[in-house]
Amino acid sequence: MFLLGFPFNSITLVMPFLIIGVGSDDVFIIIHAMRKTDKRRPLEEQIAETMEEAGPSITVTSVTNILSFGIGILTPTPAISLFCLYTCVGVAIDFIYQLTFFVAALVYEEMRILNPEKPPIENLPKEKEIVTAQLSMRSVYPADPDGIVAKYCRILKMWQVQAKLPESQNQR
């Protein structure tokens, strides 16, 4: 929203945590509904039943939050109005995300659980291949003594950067 030209203030920094809380609640509701489905049924029917049970709950909470923050946009205090605007848009995006991306990711996860030998996404490396690749990268490219981490550590060890304690605290 800031990139679209809307002003920014410090109270809007609380908004991501609020959105994470609302999104986490939606995730728990969807996963709980998915666990209650009959695993003998086809995956499409399981997802349909999951969204049939979880969809109204997620929709009601999201619409309620969007409406309440939408009404909050009308307050005369600019900081509160801006916070409500950012949060209203965030809750709407989170709602769309839950119904599209998260449910799609849940389908892939269920496919992986149902058939562990055949991954739902082709050409994914197996776990051993990932570990082997990480170990082989370490042997080919050892830690660079002139790399960015080493330079950062040298800067932190400089006396100008270190926190100096008053003399009374050094003697304890």
From TrEMBL:
Top-level division of the source organism's lineage: Eukaryota
Cellular compartment(s): Membrane
SSD domain boundaries: 1-108
Record-linked Pfam families: Patched (PF02460)
Listed InterPro entries: Patched_domain-protein, PTHD_SSD, SSD
Chief place where the protein resides: membrane
Any GO BP annotation: endocytosis
Membrane-topology annotation of the record: Multi-pass membrane protein
Transmembrane segments: 12-33, 80-108
UniProt keywords, alphabetically: Glycoprotein, Membrane, Transmembrane, Transmembrane helix
Entry GO terms, CC: cytoplasmic vesicle membrane; plasma membrane
Annotated family: Belongs to the patched family.
Name this polypeptide is given: SSD domain-containing protein
